[in-house]
Automatic annotation (TrEMBL), chain A:
Protein name, entry field: Membrane protein
Membrane topology of this protein: Multi-pass membrane protein
Domain of life assignment: Bacteria
Tagged with keyword tRNA processing: no
Primary residence: membrane
UniProtKB/TrEMBL annotation, chain B:
InterPro entries: DUF6691 (IPR046513)
Keywords of this entry: Membrane, Transmembrane, Transmembrane helix
UniProt-recorded name of the protein: Membrane protein
Organism name: Paramylibacter ulvae
Xref: Pfam families: DUF6691
Bilayer-crossing regions: 42-61, 82-110, 116-137
Amino acid sequence: METLFTPFASFGGGLLIGIGAVLLMLGLGRILGATGIMSGLVFAENRDEFAWRAAMVVGMILAPSLIFLVTGTMPELSVPVSPAMIVIGGVIVGFGASLGSGCTSGHGVCGLSRLSVRSMVAVPTFMLTAAITVYLIRHIFGA
Amino acid sequence: MKLIFALFTGLVFGAGIALSGMMNPAKVFNFFDVAGTWDPSLAFVMGGAVIITFIGYRLVWRRDAPFFDGRFQIPTPNVIDARLIGGSAIFGIGWGIAGFCPGAAIPAVGTGRWEVALFLVAVTAGFYVRRLIAAILSTAKTA
């Protein structure tokens, strides 16, 4: 399935993601990593650690509605895979991201920006395995 | 005030994710599908986000502390180990299977699509699997 090349919307979205990451550092002094925020919610150490993450998640969930209010359309979301693939992929994502201490936001955006050596290893690693996985599924197994 | 700030931060980050195309699995697959229906848009997301965060972090770190905390909490480890590489590699495989990563899926909950909720439940299960294996391994070591 083809998707439209959207360099301007994607770059603009990236700028906003960056502003979000900078704001969290300015306000709370934390790295904006979605894996850390999620696991910090699930395995919260105390009420305060739970509360700011919960507030952030509420803000994140409100975002598509904000986009709808401003642009009149919901963000595009098409899922070309089966529910089984979503579950299998999700478990692997949760396992791998918590083992590797980060995902696209934590290692990708924040880690690269602070020139973390670990993130400079993590990011090419997961980009490569994701690309190999997509290649195998689409072109070798022909799903 | 801290919680309102966190909510606003989540809203900005989520709006960026929504605008960028990151929450659209079809676009994620096509970003990695260089040999097929390639759509390089998502490279612009990372570009925009890293530019802002790289500059923004350095401005913020001129302060002694963030607004709502006594200190900046920045990860200090710089060891490249098997956990980092293995975890990242596994995360990439899951991302390539499901098409969602945690930072994209949390705001995507706001679109009301059931696939997103299913993915996040699976990610949480993945967190538990990682903890369970870690617990078993540490018991085996002490036994």
